[in-house]
Specification:
Largest sheet: 4 strands, parallel
Radius of gyration: 13 Å
Helix content: 25-40%
Shape: globular
Oligomer: single chain
Strand content: 15-25%
Number of helices: 5
CATH topology: Dna Topoisomerase Vi A Subunit, Chain: A, domain 2
Length: 109
């Protein structure tokens, strides 16, 4: 997805969230776990006007923590916390793709 012509990018934790976000029409890349982020990856994300990190709302706060790490290194990141107890995948399963699009404030990208 990094080669496509978008002015925004969405980041998520995990492959299933990446697939679901992409199927909902959001250009997305995923990281395989909270501790997987590497600061050198920021260079690839700085080409976007804004990067939205769709943070899992788990009880450990790790989704928010991953977003904060990415934001620290990129500077163009906005964190969107999923509803309590949800990640991208579970939100779409429970409420449909429209719920995710409403959560990120976009109908189409």
């Amino acid at each position: 997805m990094l080669e496509e012509d978008h002015n925004v990018m969405f980041t998520v934790e995990g492959e299933p969230d990446t697939w679901i976000a992409t199927q909902c029409g959001l250009p997305a890349i995923g990281f395989p776990g909270v501790s997987s982020w590497r600061p050198e990856w920021a260079l690839a994300l700085k080409q976007y006007d804004v990067v939205y990190h769709l943070a899992d709302a788990d009880d450990k706060g790790q989704g928010q923590e991953l977003g904060e790490r990415i934001a620290r290194d990129c500077g163009n990141v906005r964190i969107i916390l999923m509803p309590e107890g949800h990640d991208v995948n579970s939100l779409v399963k429970a409420e449909g793709p429209e719920a995710l699009l409403r959560k990120v404030g976009m109908q189409h990208v």
